[in-house]
Amino acid sequence: MLNTTNSPRRRRGMGRLVAVVLGVLAVALALPGLAQAAPITVVPGLPPVEVPSIPGLPTPPTTTPPAPTTPPPPPATTTPETPGVPAKPNVATPTGWVALAQDSNHTIYWWNDGKFVKSMPISMGTNEHPTPNGVYHTREKYRDMYMDSSTYGVPVNSPEGYRTYVEYATRMSGDGIFIHAAPWSVQQQGKSDVSHGCINVSTENGKWVYDTVGQGTPIVVTGTVGGQYDGN
């Protein structure tokens, strides 16, 4: 009878049994760590990886990446070129300068080469002597002069007559309408009309027009009760 206690075949069988036992122990020790493993992060743009389930462990939830969202376009905004300033009159100008005299708010606005430059308060003709509406053009200039009502048929000594010394006078029409310094009407400039038809401005503003604006510059008058300027 053969002694098989320590035979090679028996030793191989024992080795396999030990390996199986050790494998079982390793799996049992690893299970708690697997149960606490961090969930798999799904990377947007890549397909999710299917993780095989382990018996006795909860299946981790499948994370679905959020659908990409397109941010709404910014709201369309319109910003006035210069807040509070009316549109520049569409008139030809040989000097680059254009002016708009509005009787509604007693203000004259100035543009140069299409860009707004400045505004100034004014006083135009009263309802009895209104400034006609229309497009005027600057003509000759006078550093100082006397304005005489008799030049357009009103005697100086009549109730409506006058002979007044003025400075920085720029002629706008052939019948005697000027834009000129009128320090006596500064309190009314920007508020009401008190002139005999001219555009009254302060001395500072009259000097600015005299020094800055070239001959032929259009001055557009609007909003008065004076009818329409005939271009003379």
Question: What distance lies between the first and last C-alpha atoms, to the nearest angstrom?
Answer: 149 Å
Low-confidence stretches: 27-42, 76-80
Q: Output the CATH topology of the domain at 97-222.
A: L,D-transpeptidase catalytic domain-like
Which structural class do you get from the secondary structure elements?
alpha+beta
Biggest beta sheet attributes: 5 strands, mixed
Which percent range describes the beta-strand content?
Answer: 15-25%
Oligomer: single chain
What would you say the CATH architecture of the domain at 97-222 is?
A: Beta Barrel
Based on CA atoms alone, the radius of gyration comes out at: 47 Å
As laid out across the biggest beta sheet, the strand order is 3-2-1-9-4
Annotated CATH homologous superfamily of the domain at 97-222: L,D-transpeptidase catalytic domain-like
| Helix content bin | 10-25%
**Count of extended strands:** 9
Order of helices and strands: HEEEEEEEEHE
